[in-house]
Amino acid sequence: MKTTRAYAPASIGNVSLGFDVLGAALAPVDGTELGDVVEVSDAAEFTLTCTGAFAHKLPPGADNNIVTLCYAHFFEEMVKAGKETHHVAMTLHKNLPIGSGLGSSASSIVAAFHALNAHFDCPFDENALLLMMGELEGQISGSIHYDNVAPCYLGGLTLMTGNDAKVTVQLPTVKSWYWVVCYSGISVSTSAARNILPKEVAMADTLTFGRQLGVFVHALHAGDTDLAASVMQDVIAEPYRKSLLPGFDDARAFSMENGGLAFGISGSGPTVFAVCDDADKAEAIREWLQANYVQNEDGFSHVCRIPEKGAVEQQVKG
């Protein structure tokens, strides 16, 4: 019996200055697996099993699980492409908290599609899979956007193009930066975080957003890390969303006063992130956030890097 296993990492959506168009994959420096895993095995009929630290937070019933929807969509596309199919059994190892701002749904979606595609000998290319992933992510959040699924799938720091023919491009990463992420333990739904935003953005904020994103991309290509860090400020979402995050202002103040180059909300929150260029300072910020920003036993913090690879196949034991 053939079994295929895929891991998909957590991610930071928006990265402060790139609302809905910028995302970064995450890899803890201590080797912790911060992401979901999906296994696919040949079977007589479809089944879905859920396990992992946050499996109990998922909606009850296989039909209500995003992995089941991924399976159905993948097989629909296989039939359209004239590819042979057969039933599989799937297992979701739900390691990321739901509504955390770490791309939890994206991680499940990416792991599911990556595992299915690999299991059936890669009938679809990266861009075709990204389009499927974005469509399924849109069913969760209410709109199609790729700022979590793209870095989760491809790794690195990704910029969305708005062009279905080439969904995303890779940006250079700053190798000296550490990314401290801290999940408080509470849940913030993507839809609630979107509903709190204004329906229109002021002209001044729109101009600032465009300038910052343009300068950031230029600075990364030019290797000007100071300039890149200086424009990592969210003028679109953070002023409104931070009201949903207890302790946000204190966390920002401590981080920026103790070696942080930038600080912001990861996706819709409540996870926050700080950027540092010193390992010791990053660890000190992580410890403070763990002690002061975390709200309950579900919370955690990690010092991370941005990995070059996103979703990967893993060896199946046994």
From TrEMBL:
Its main location: cytoplasm. PROSITE patterns: GHMP_KINASES_ATP. GO terms for cellular component: cytoplasm. Pathway: Amino-acid biosynthesis; L-threonine biosynthesis; L-threonine from L-aspartate: step 4/5. Pfam families: GHMP_kinases_C, GHMP_kinases_N. Residues 217-294 form the GHMP kinase C-terminal domain. GO terms for biological process: threonine biosynthetic process. One of its GO terms (molecular function) is homoserine kinase activity. Its EC number is 2.7.1.39. Residues 70-156 form the GHMP kinase N-terminal domain. InterPro entries: GHMP_kinase_C_dom, GHMP_kinase_C_sf, GHMP_kinase_N_dom, GHMP_knse_ATP-bd_CS, Homoserine_kinase, Ribosomal_Su5_D2-typ_SF, Ribsml_uS5_D2-typ_fold_subgr. ATP binds at P97, I98, G99, S100, G101, L102, G103, S104, S105, A106, S107. It comes from the Bacteria. Catalyzes the ATP-dependent phosphorylation of L-homoserine to L-homoserine phosphate. Belongs to the GHMP kinase family. Homoserine kinase subfamily. PANTHER family: HOMOSERINE KINASE, HOMOSERINE/4-DIPHOSPHOCYTIDYL-2-C-METHYL-D-ERYTHRITOL KINASE. This is Homoserine kinase. It comes from Alteromonas confluentis. The lineage of its organism: Bacteria, Pseudomonadati, Pseudomonadota, Gammaproteobacteria, Alteromonadales.
